Amino acid sequence: QVQLVESGGGLVQAGGSLTLSCAYFGRTFSTYAMGWFRQAPGKEREFVAALSWNGDITHYADSVKGRFTISRDNAKNTMSLQMNSLQPEDTANYYCAARRGDISSLSYDYWGQGTQVTVSS
Q: Across-strand partners of 98?
């Protein structure tokens, strides 16, 4: 069984930064590709960023490229999302997710409960 727990969300002014964390509980974290998704009120969930099992390969949505950085620490079973230059349109509930295999697919096996990020203008 895999459990994912996000933290680090909050309220920040436009232009500010936040770091989200995802704690992984289960076996063999290092065999899972990890991803971040977000969902704003009234909108569908959208992909934000993904990271391969060893951290060598990353993929970002165009909307966050150059502002967000995804990383992982396999020794600590954690993943992070550093978010800089935040804008009001980044306001959403952010979810971490895990999947076996590579990051070419957006189909993930496990999901966290989410952490809210609100960016004020």
A: 34, 110
DSSP 67-119: TEEEEEETTTTEEEEEE-S--GGG-EEEEEEEEES-SS----SEE---EEEEE
DSSP SS3 for 31: helix
- E strand or H helix that includes residue 29: none
The angle formed by the CA atoms of residues 30, 36 and 37, to the nearest 5 degrees, is 145
Q: Answer whether residue 101 shows pLDDT above 90.
A: no
Q: Which residues pair with residue 12 across a beta bridge?
A: 119
- Residue 27's pLDDT is 83
- Write the pLDDT tens digit of every residue in 52-88: 999 999 999 999 999 999 999 999 999 999 999 999 9
* H and E: helices and strands count for the chain: 0, 11
Q: Which two tokens stand for residue 96?
A: 């971490």
